[in-house]
Design a protein that fits this description.
mainly alpha, 3 helices, single chain
Length: 52
């Protein structure tokens, strides 16, 4: 798992080298644990929308 991903360029670099997991500010700033359920509910997309 790559840590500290902050830009699209960093994500692209890692993906081109086979990295499939990452975390960092590019995806989300830290949020309180009690806010995660709401975040997931509001940003839910059907699986078909996520397949490229």
């Amino acid at each position: 798992t790559a840590e500290g991903i902050e830009t699209k360029e960093q994500l692209d670099y890692l993906q081109k080298r086979g990295c499939e997991e990452g975390q960092g500010f590019y995806f989300s700033r830290p949020i309180p644990a009690d806010a995660i359920a709401l975040l997931l509910k509001e940003s839910f997309q059907p699986m078909e929308a996520l397949v490229a």
